[in-house]
Automatic annotation (TrEMBL):
Protein's name according to its UniProt entry: DNA-binding response regulator
One MF term in the entry's GO annotations: DNA binding
All residue ranges annotated as the Response regulatory domain in the record: 8-124
Domain HTH luxR-type: 146-211
Entry-linked InterPro entries: CheY-like_superfamily, NreC/VraR/RcsB-like_REC, Sig_transdc_resp-reg_C-effctor, Sig_transdc_resp-reg_receiver, Tscrpt_reg_LuxR_C, WalR-like
Alphabetized SUPFAM superfamilies for the sequence: C-terminal effector domain of the bipartite response regulators (SSF46894), CheY-like (SSF52172)
Modification 4-aspartylphosphate, positions: D58
Domain of life, source organism: Bacteria
Length: 215
C-alpha cells in the first residue's frame, strides 16, 4: 500500500506514555499516526490543521473541556469526522453518549492493539465498532430498558443525585443550589426511592458506574 493510501490517524490523550504505546502499536502498512495532542484545546486545534482520517480520542482529559466536548465541537463543524473513543471507563451511559453524539467506535485502554487497529479501519470506512462485551451490554440495555439515573431522573434531580454521590449533606446541597434544606430533603428521598438505593455507599457506586462522578 502506498503511503498516501494509509489511514492517517491522530491520537489525543493526556498520558504521553499511553499515546506513545498506541502510536507504536498502530504503525503498520495501512495505518500511520500523523499527529498527537495532550489537551482538549490542542486536540481541536491540531485536528483542524491536520484533518486526519481518524481521531482516537480519550474521553476524560483536560480541566475545562473533556473528550466528549472535543467530539461535539468537531462533529458540529465536520459531521463526517471519524472518531474512535478510547477510555479506561466503560459505563453504559458513556458508551451511549459516545454513540449519540456521533462516535464511530468505543474502545477501552486495556484492549488488544489489533482490536484498536480494527476499530480504526472500521471507523475509516464509516462503520460502527464496539468491543464485543460492550456491544452485548448495549443490546441487553435495549431489551430490558434503560434504568440509569440519567434515564430515570429529570435534570434537577440528576444534579442533586450527583451531589449526594459526592458525599454532600442535604444542608450543603441546599446551600450549593440556593434552596431550602427541606426542599433537598424531600428531593433526596424521592431520588432514593426512584433509583432504589438508600445507603450512601450504594449511591456513590451507582453514580460512578454511570459516569456521573469520577471514582
Amino acid at each position: 500500500m502506498k503511503k498516501s493510501e494509509r489511514i492517517r490517524v491522530m491520537l489525543a490523550d493526556d498520558h504521553p506514555i499511553v499515546m506513545a504505546g498506541f502510536a507504536m502499536s498502530l504503525a503498520g502498512p495501512d495505518i500511520e499516526v500523523v499527529a498527537q495532542a495532550r489537551t482538549p484545546e490542542e486536540a481541536i486545534e491540531t485536528y483542524t490543521a491536520q484533518r486526519p482520517d481518524v481521531l482516537i480520542l480519550d474521553i476524560r482529559f483536560g480541566e475545562q473541556l473533556t473528550g466528549l466536548d472535543v467530539a461535539r465541537r468537531l462533529l458540529a463543524a465536520q459531521p463526517d469526522a471519524r472518531i474512535v473513543f478510547l477510555t479506561q471507563f466503560d459505563q453504559d451511559s458513556l458508551v451511549k453518549e459516545c454513540y449519540r453524539i456521533g462516535g464511530r467506535a468505543f474502545i477501552t485502554k486495556d484492549c488488544d492493539p489489533e482490536e484498536l487497529a480494527a476499530a480504526v479501519r472500521r471507523a475509516h470506512q464509516g462503520e460502527l465498532y464496539f468491543m464485543p462485551a460492550i456491544a452485548e451490554r448495549l443490546a441487553s440495555l435495549s431489551v430490558r430498558g434503560d434504568e440509569s439515573p440519567q434515564a430515570l431522573l429529570d435534570e434537577r434531580s440528576l444534579a442533586i443525585f450527583a451531589l449526594m454521590a459526592e458525599g454532600l449533606t442535604n444542608a450543603e446541597i441546599a446551600e450549593r443550589l440556593d434552596v431550602s434544606s427541606k426542599t433537598i430533603s424531600n428531593a433526596s428521598q424521592a431520588i432514593k426511592d426512584r433509583l432504589g438505593v438508600h445507603r450512601p455507599a450504594d449511591i456513590t457506586r451507582l453514580a460512578v458506574r454511570h459516569g456521573l462522578i469520577q471514582p
